[in-house]
What we know:
B: two-stranded antiparallel ribbon
Amino acid sequence: MATNLPRTDVVVIGLGAVGGVAVLPLVSAGLNVIGLEAGGWMSTRDFAPDEIRNNIRDWPQAVPKAKSEIPTSRANINFEAVQGGGHPMMNGVGGTSLHYWAQSWRLNPWDFKTVSETTNRYGAHRIPTDSTVEDWPISYDDLEPFYDRVEYALGVSGYAGNVNGTLQPNGSQFEGPRSRPYPMPGLRSSGFTDMMSEAARQLGWNPFQGPAAINTEIYGNRPGCFYHGFCDRGGCHAAAKSSTAVTTIPEAMKSGLLKVVTHARVLKIVNDADGRVTGVEYLSGNQVMFQPAAAVLLASHTYENTRLLLLSKSREFPDGLANNSGQVGQHYLSHHQGAPVLALFPKDLNNWYGLPAQGVAIDEWADDNFDHSDLDFIGGGNLWAHTDRKPISAAKMSTFDLVPTWGAKWKAFISENADRTNTSYIQKTTLPYRGNYLDLDPQVKDKLGFPVIRITAELRDNEKRIAAFTQEKMEAWYRAAGATQIVRTGLGTAMGPSTHAYGGTRMGDDASTNVTDRFGFAHEAPNLGVLGASVMGTSGARNPTLTAQALAWRTAEHLAANWDTITR
Amino acid sequence: MNNKNKNPEHAVGSEGELVLSRRNLLKGVGLSGAALMTAGSGSIIAQTSEPVASPARIRVMEAFETLTAAESAALDAFASRILPSDDGTPGAHEARAVHFIDRGLTGAMAASREQYAVGLAALDEHAMQVGGSAFYQLSASEQDAIVEAMTLSAIPAFPMLNAGFFNLVRTHTIEGTFSDPYYGGNRDFVGWDLIGYPGVRVMSTPDEIIQGRDLAPSRQSAYDMPTHTKDPVVAPAGGVSHGH
C-alpha cells in the first residue's frame, strides 16, 4: 500500500531540460512544487574529459532506470521490434541537459505553420499524402516571449539575425524576429570554422555561428566555456554549460518552494472519477509513495511521457491516461539528423579542442528559405560544420577507401589524417506520418515488469529527398573549402530511439487528433500538463531543446495565471 | 601513468608489472628484427640482426585479470597486426591495448568475454592447422594472411573467425590504444602521440589550439587532474593538502 504524503500544489515528473525550466515560473508565482527525479545530483567533479566513459560507455547516461527501459524499435509492422544499443536519455537532476551539445535554436516561423504556408505558396497537394502534419496551434510570435525568457534565464550565447524585424549581419538571415539579442556573444570561431565561413561566402551563402546554452563570458556566476574538447556527451567540468542543474533548478530552490526528490521512480499518474489527476505514485527504494497534488506536469522525455500515460490505466481511462481518443503515441517522429557527409582535407584542421556547438551554420537550404516549386519535397536542412574531435573517434575515422582498415598502411593513414576530417551535421525537416507511432511493447518489459515503449516508424520519401538535396549542398561547401575526399552516407531508414524524439502527446486544438491543448494541458485531463518535445508536431531543421523549454515555461506560466480555473 | 622507477635493468612499473630492460630484451629469445620499444618508454631502443618472426615476442610479465596466458598472447599478436609497430613507432603492443581489453572484459565489456574466449581459441587452432603453431608464433606475414581472411569472413572452417570478430577486436584495440591511460592502455601516451593529439587539459586557449599537433603534449590522464578525482573534498582552510 502506498504511503500518502502531504498534498502539494504541483508535482513535476522529471527535473531535466524541461521540468527543470518549468519549476522557476511556478515558484515565482508562489506555488509549492515537488520535483520528482529518477536520478540523483551530479557535480562538476563527475564530468571528466574521458572519452571511454562519456562516449564509449555512455556514462553518466547509463544509469539503471533509463537503461532498463530502452525502447524496442522496428521500421513498420512487418518486422518484430528489437531492443538494441543504449537509452538516448538519462536520469539525473538536469537530465540530458547535463551532457547535451547545448545547441539552442529557435524554430523557424515556417515550422509552426507548415500546412498553411505550404498550401499558400505551393498548393495543398505538396503536403505528403501519408503525413498527419497539422499547423501548430500557436505561432512563432506566440512563443517568442518564452524563447526570450529561457535564453536569459539559462544563459544562451549566440548572434541574433533579426531583432524586431531588423536584420543583423552576424546571425541567421532567416530567423523569426526576436525581441532582443542574445544575453551574450556566441562561442568563438576557430581556424576551421573561419575556413568554412570563407568557403560559404564564396558560394554566396551567409554563414553564421549558431547559438548554444553555453556561457561565453561570466553569466549567472558561472564562467565562460573552457573549450577543452569533451563537451559531447560530457557534463561541463566548469559549469559553463547552462544545464538546468546549474541554472533554473538552483534558482527555483532559493525560493524555498521547490522540493527536489531524487531517486524517485514514477509508476503511475492517478486520476479521479471526473478524469482529473489527483497525484503521482512513485517508488523510493522499495517504498511506494503517493504524492497528491492540485496539478501534475509530466516532464520526462518523449518515450517516457508516452509510456507513463499508457501505463496509467484507470476505470476512466482504460487505454491509458488522457488516451480515450487513442492519440497517445501517435504522430511520433524522430529527427532526421543522420545521413551526414564526411570530408577529408589536405591539412590539419586543429580541431582537437573544439565542441559540437562551436560551429558555423548555413540556413539557405533549411525550412522554406528557398523556392521549392520545382522540387519534390517540402522543408529542408540546416548545414552545420563544427569542431569536435576526440582521440578514439579520430582513430576510428573513415579511411575514404584509400587504405585498408588495419595494418601498417592504416596506421600511417590515421597518423597523418586524424586531424584532417570533418563530419557534417545536417538536421532536416521531419514530419509525422500514418503508421509511425509509439505503443507499449507486447513482450519486452523493464526490471519492474512494466512494458517498454515500442517504436514503429521509418523515414519517408520527403525526409530522404531532403537528405539527398542537402548532402549535395554540403559536398559543395566542403569542396569550396578545399576538401579532397568526400563520402556521402546512406539517406536513412528507420526512426530508432533518438534524443530528438517528438510527438506522442501532440499539441493541437482538435481533441480528436491531439492529446494536449494549445497550452500543453491534456484535453481529457485538464489539470495534467505535458512538457517536452512530445507535444511538438514538427521537428524543424534544428535541435528541439530550446523550443521544448520555451513551451514548458509557457505551460507553467499558464498554469500559474489560470490556477483557479485549471485546478478548480 | 608515470615512469616512477627508471632502473635500467629491471624496473617495476606503476601497476607492479615487470618492465623488461633493453638488455634483457636483447637477450631474450626470438627478438624482432624490426625496431623494438620498451613497454615503459615507447622509445626506439635497438635494431637486431637476429631474424625473428614477430614483434609479439616482447612479453611483459604481469597478471591479466581474466585473459589466460594463451588468450593474451594470441590477442596481443592479433592487436599488433591491426596496429603494428614494424615501422619502428609504437603500436597496439606498446600501448598495451591488451591490458585495456583484459580489464574491460571484467567490467564494462564483460558481454564480449565469451566471444573473446571462443574467437581466440579458434584463432590458435586455425593457426595450428595452417602454420603449425599458435597464432602468436607465426610470422607477421602469416598472421596478416589470417587477419585478411578474417576481414573477408573467408575462414569457413572456423565460423568465429569472421569480420564480426575482427571488428570487435579492432574496435577494442583502437579504444585501448587511444583511450585515457587510466584504463590500462595508451601507455606513455603512445596512442595520442601517434595521431598528434596533444592530450587532455582543463582548458584550451586559441593560441594553444592553433598549434595543433605541435602543441606540447599535456602528458596527463583526466584523473591526474585534481578536479576529477572522486577523493573526498578537503576543506580549504586548515586541511592537509590531499595528494593525488
